[in-house]
Amino acid sequence: MQVQLPSSLFREHGVRAAYLFGSRARGEQSPHSDHDLAVLFGSLTPMERMDR
Description:
Blueprint: H1 7-12, E1 15-21, H2 23-26, E2 36-41, H3 46-51
Antiparallel strand pairs: 1-2
């Protein structure tokens, strides 16, 4: 499944990239599978990173 998110959502929160990984990314999810996401933020201070 492919999901399109508005680019404004990424800009507003300083997201440079987001990756889905794990069973859902491979199409092997079960009804109880979670969503594994890795999010790369740009130009945040260490305190800003902790707040997210």
